[in-house]
Amino acid sequence: MSQEASCVAAFWSFIVQVLTWGLVILGWLVVVDQTEYRELTKIALARIAALRDQLRAIEELAIKFHTSPYDQASSRELTRKIKKFSEEIMDLKAAGHVSHASASCSIDVRKAVTLQNFDQSSHQVLDRRADLVTDIEAVADSTDTQLMRCASSASAKPRKLRMTFQGLWKRI
C-alpha cells in the first residue's frame, strides 16, 4: 500500500510540475507577444512621424512651386513626393495603423496641389495669399491632424490578452 501511495504522490507531484512549467511557458509567450506588439507599434509611430515630415515637405514645395515661375523639375519632384506619400499611407492603412479618413486625405493633398495651376500652359505665379496657397495649407493642416490622431490611437491601443492568445494559436 505504501508503494502505491508513493506512486500516486509522485504522479501528482509530476502533474503539479507540468502545470507549473506550462504556466511559466505560457507567461513567457504572452510577454514575448506583448513585446513584439509594442515594437510594431513603435515602428508604426515612426512611420507616421515620417509621413508628417513628408507632408510638410510637400506643402513647402507646393507653395514654392505655385509662387514661382513654372519649373518642370519641381513639378516632377512634387508629383513623385505626393505619389510616395499616398503609397505610404495606403500601406499603413492596409496594416491597420491609419484610418480610412487619413487615407482619403492623401487624395485631398494631391487635388489641392495638382488640380489647379499645375499645367505648364496654365501656370501663373501666385501671391503667397492666393486662395490656392491657402487651400494647400488648409489641406496639409487637416491631413497632419488626421495623422496625429492615428498616432494617438496607435499608441493608446492596448493589446488584449485574448488577441495575444489568438496570435499564439495562429503561430502554433
What percentage of the residues does DSSP assign to strands (E)? Answer: under 5%
SSE order, one letter for each helix or strand: HHHHH
Number of domains: 1
CATH class: Mainly Alpha
Number of strands: 0
First-residue to last-residue Cα separation: 43 Å
| Average pLDDT figure | 89
- Structural class computed from helices and strand pairing: mainly alpha
Instruction: Give the count of helical stretches.
Output: 5
Give the fraction of residues assigned to helices: over 70%
- Main β sheet profile: none
Over the alpha carbons, how many angstroms does the gyration radius reach?
27 Å
Description:
There is one protein chain. The chain has helices at residues 2-66, 72-94, 100-114, 131-156, 161-171. It has 5 helices and no strands. It has a single domain (2-171), classed as Four Helix Bundle (Hemerythrin (Met), subunit A) (Up-down Bundle), CATH 1.20.120. With 172 residues, the chain is mainly α.
